[in-house]
Amino acid sequence: MKVEGMKMAKTDSVKVITGSLLIDGLGGAPVERGAVVVEGSRISWAGPEKDMPRREGQEAQTHNFPEGCVMPGLVDVHTHTNLPGDGTAVEEASDEPDEMLTLRSAWNARKHLETGVTTARDNGGKNLTTMYLKEGIERGFVPGPRMVISGRPITITGGHCWPMGGEADGVDGVRQAARRLIKEGVDFIKIMTTGGGTRSSFPMLPSFNLDELQAITYEAHLFGKLVGAHCSSTQGIINSLDAGADMLIHCTFFEPDGSYKYDPKVGERIAETGVWVNPTLHVGTATLLVLKARQRERELSHEEKELLETTKRRLEQRLDSCRRLVEAGAKMVSGSDSGWSNYPMGRFQREVEEMMDIGLSGMNAILSGTREAAKSIGMEDLVGSLEPGKEADVLVVKGNPAQDIGALSRVEAVFKAGDRVV
């Protein structure tokens, strides 16, 4: 790349961000004394500071972080901005008026942005609330990450997240539901291929039949939309693969009787097809931490003790199956599921940290929440790495997260589209 005599934009739109380290999101080792040059909202150069192109005229605005690691803004592929993350069930949360849910979504989005998430994919909100959130952010009414929105998840009558307004049944019904969402301008389609935490649903059983699922994915792909499939049972995983889903969300291997059994043949198929897997690891850990905190303060009730043991067991099962998926070569990305259960937004880094518990290296865990995450949601041309032409979404943390993943939470600065987030 020729760097001499590089023509720059007007001075007040040029920024230089420097730090003791640079992780560009391309998979290589951190670069010592790195720099990113920003023109307007885009990156024009990134690399070792000593090789930074000379600028003609006045000096650019400089942001120097002597102990900071300059890296891409984080990409969270799974959020629920409608939800408070305080243990409130989706049924109760959805009882609130849409106006309040939109305000909560704006509050959550700001928290995520200020803690380093510059792109977030919302995996289900009530009615049009998340659509209004995205538009409000884009119009500058409220601060927040770049939002990738599914709107109402498509679910069977009484299925997982039905209070959000996406119930549909039969091939014609689900096709119409998908087309309506596309008309409204969603970025991707979310399907509940099994039940989940919603009380009237059945998490160990598949929801839609294959004809219904194929009708949804056909409509989505016809109009260039990706499909994310919530699946918390082995048959749900198989149905999602058969229907051509682009991402398996949760991807848990439960049998109809409630037993948990990893299926190596299904794991191999996941790896061979190249479908993305978003395991949502920390949402279970978050509940475990809440219960342990209560246990330190008082004796748990019988129900809480049962929940504690169930949560411990399921976390062990999840970690084991995810390790085996990694060994099989499955493509894993970080998506927090924050907002859900006891996982408040603003703590996405916890999900990235737990990716190391299933066998990813420190750098690959970082990539699971930056470059690979951006690829999985179709945003790789805009975000996920520090490359010329991409949006200047930059995170600065104190320390070297490739060696100490906890450094991801020591945020020093966040830039979105070249502007520093206050």
Short description:
Helix 5 links the parallel strand 8 (188-192) and strand 9. The protein is α/β, with parallel strands linked by helices.
**Order of strands in the sheet with the most strands?**
3-2-1-4-13-14-15
Mean pLDDT: 95
Can you count the helices? 12
Radius of gyration: 22 Å
Helix content: 25-40%
The backbone outline, from C-alpha atoms, is globular
Strand portion:
15-25%
Q: What sequence of helices (H) and strands (E) makes up the elements?
A: EEEEEHHEHEHEHEHEHEHHEHHHEEE
Q: How many strand segments? A: 15
Distance between the termini: 34 Å
**Which structural class best describes the helix and strand composition?**
alpha/beta
Low-confidence stretches: 1-11
Q: Which sheet architecture does the biggest sheet show?
A: 7 strands, mixed
Secondary structure elements and pairings:
Elements: E1 14-22, E2 31-39, E3 42-48, E4 61-72, E5 74-79, H1 90-93, H2 98-114, E6 117-122, H3 129-138, E7 146-149, H4 170-184, E8 188-192, H5 210-222, E9 226-231, H6 234-243, E10 247-250, H7 264-273, E11 276-278, H8 282-297, H9 302-328, E12 331-332, H10 349-355, H11 362-368, H12 371-376, E13 394-398, E14 411-416, E15 419-420
Parallel strand pairs: 1-4, 5-6, 6-7, 8-9, 9-10, 10-11, 11-12
Antiparallel strand pairs: 1-2, 2-3, 4-13, 13-14, 14-15
